[in-house]
Amino acid sequence: MSAGALTNVHRMFIQVMMSRRVLSDREIRKVYSKLQPEGDANLTTFVSLVNKKLEPLSMSIVKGKEEDTGHTYYALVNVSPDAAAKLANDFSPAELEYFHKVVEMLVNSDSGTAGSMSFMNISIERKLSKTEVQNLLKRLTKEKWLTSIEESGYYAPGIRFILELQPFLRETFGDSDVYKCPVCSTLVIRGEVCARCSARIHLYCAEKLFSDRSTANCPHCRSQLHREQTTPASRKRSARESVGKNW
Description:
This protein is of the alpha+beta class. It is 41% helix and 17% strand. It has helices at residues 8-20, 25-35, 43-54, 93-108, 116-120, 130-142, 159-164, 166-173, 203-210, 232-241; strands spanning 22-24, 59-65, 72-78, 114-115, 146-149, 154-157, 179-180, 187-188, 191-193, 200-202, 216-217, 224-225. The strands form 5 sheets. A 3-stranded antiparallel sheet has the order 1-3-2. A 3-stranded antiparallel sheet has the order 4-6-5. A two-stranded antiparallel sheet has the order 7-8. A hairpin with a 6-residue loop joins strand 2 and strand 3.
């Protein structure tokens, strides 16, 4: 197979991504192995070739990590300058206005989370009933725009929020409100926050960086961080209750 050829295998792979939109690392490797069991290209090369063919459509398969767990996902995203406007094809005007308010609330939250009651109290020009809001939140969660923090009544950005909305977030809110993790240099909304310089770091990056250290220093300003000396499991439980705690 030539480097630039697009085979039926690639087309079927694109169809899977278009129907699913988001796949975990395990899921995408399972799909890949079924479609190309004897292929000579690895997954990275395979996806790169597919992305070359998706360029004229302003689409791309991007890779990123879920903020809570650090698990890897792949998403088919619209990379055109007006990608956010394309959401109008998936939501009614009232739903889209509401979704933008949800995004704004999460970005401006110190913890990167918001409670269901806060979402229910969002005021928009085009009114939605309580039932319509509840159904929309369920849909946003099911489609991985949001993630529900178990048993807490709080929501956080989902993997599609992180992977698909980055250009929109930076254009709308600017770099001052859209943080870049000082450890991995990728977008972070929900994370631990340095009390001195306000740097925000992914929960999984902090766990990996500080798990074997008796003391911790902010990777941005180097000031000492006073983290709770807890196990990873208990720190995760604490994160569900109050994500984005100050160091």
